[in-house]
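Q: How would the structure tokens look for this protein?
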Amino acid sequence: MSSRYAHLGNATATTHHSTACDTPVTHGCSTSLLQRLVDRSAYGALVADACEFNRGLSRGRAARLPFVDTATRTTQRPAPWLYRPQCDRFKG
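A: Here is the predicted structure in token form.
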């Protein structure tokens, strides 16, 4: 393995060049990670964690004070008209 990909460990792109259908490729993902993504309950937990993380980012972004952009000399702040409340998103 070249030193360029040493940080990826043993699971770097592994290919066997026989035919296009017989070519297993692993791009740095461990098999346990792939197995967890296939499991429905683990996948649901992963999506729930990602949603909570994104909610935390949104809360933090909304709580930040506005700042002055030095290039345009305008005050940058969240644009509330770009976001709809949850009750407006699921009409129908």
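The chain has a mean pLDDT of 70.

Strands lie at 67-68, 75-76.

Upvote if useful.
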